[in-house]
Amino acid sequence: MIVAFSVTPLGVGEDVGEYVADAVRVVRESGLPNRTDAMFTSVEGEWDEVMDVVKRAVAAVEARAPRVSVVLKADIRPGVTDGLTSKVETVERHLAG
């Protein structure tokens, strides 16, 4: 499965980059395949391990912010691995053709 999620600390002002970095650090240290862009961090793995990473990433922000907002989207597709790369490669192949 692939989960794309964003964690937004509330009540800490407009500059939230350092709080978001705390969440991304948890994801990167998890060892699961992941990718971060301007809006979301995506992580790939089995349900329990991915949800554990999301929970710990939220907790890292929650430890420093009085309120946290989370947006999450999941692609649950048993048997598929390397979806983070293969889904993008498919789109790129269509764009090149």
TrEMBL record:
It comes from the Bacteria. NCBIfam families: MTH1187 family thiamine-binding protein (TIGR00106). Residues 3-92 form the Thiamine-binding protein domain. This is Thiamine-binding protein domain-containing protein. GO terms for cellular component: cytosol. It comes from Streptomyces sparsogenes DSM 40356. PANTHER family: UPF0045 PROTEIN ECM15. Coiled coil: none annotated. Belongs to the UPF0045 family. InterPro entries: MTH1187/YkoF-like, Thiamine_BP, UPF0045_domain.
